[in-house]
Amino acid sequence: xxxxxxxxxxxxxxxxxxxxxxxxxxxxxxxxxxxxxxxxxxxxxxxxxxxxxxxxxxxxxxxxxxxxxxxxxxxxxxxxxxxxxxxxxxxxxxxxxxxxxxxxxxxxxxxxxxxxxxxxxxxxxxxxxxxxxxxxxxxxxxxxxxxxxxxxxxxxxxxxxxxxxxxxxxxxxxxxxxxxxxxxxxxxxxxxxxxxxxxxxxxxxxxxxxxxxxxxxxxxxxxxxxxxxxxxxxxxxxxxxxxxxxxxxxxxxxxxxxxxxxxxxxxxxxxxxxxxxxxxxxxxxxxxxxxxxxxxxxxxxx
Length: 302
Hints:
- The protein has 302 residues and is an alpha/beta fold.
- The protein has helices at 12-28, 42-45, 51-54, 62-69, 128-137, 150-158, 169-174, 208-214, 220-235, 281-301, and strands at residues 3-9, 33-39, 75-79, 91-96, 104-107, 122-124, 142-144, 164-168, 183-185, 199-204, 244-251, 254-262, 269-277.
- It is globular.
């Protein structure tokens, strides 16, 4: 191939991620021309309701997948946390790039940390996972929905609509907005979304030439971690409709996976963790999901 077309959302973060992938591919394959095909998705267009209310994170993918089916694009670049746990045929994820910082960011113009917020402070996030963990740590806070791209969310904070907001560290740093991070919310007290901060390349399963081009960017350590996290989420039937968090980390030759299912209404949380061989991340994910369900997660998921 001499030209590779990458379908991407039009948000600044999505464009950064796609251009990052494009530049990496140009470096690995000298002479390859890589062009972006920016597209608008329903997930980007409908901002007055939560993702759970309008159909889930899969809305960020559908138009890009249709472009591949119509032959208008060869592959697509996604934030892996937005990719449904069950990828529909005829698509595959031949490359998952090395993960950035998976932590969430506490962002505020007036307060240094979550603990520093006064009682009743208003915090913005539409993520049920983030809401559940906020409710567990600070049940006194007022939680309000917050949608839109990173700059839109920061603009609402700066306009005084919120005392603080929760964003992903990786997204802020990729957009050179790392200075806005006041505190990093890290494991084990706070867990990210499964596969947070990982970027994936999607293409058709039958596109062997595309797969051969992009698989050079696949990062084996990252793939093992996110496959464990996604397997846990899949076993819990997790989506943006339920507050599920998880983080896998390397310990020697093994993986250590922490999982959480939370309750948005009352802050209840069920946690579990396990270690297992990195050669079978799916089994590790299923084991942590089993522990979570045995610990009472089924009630919260229902």
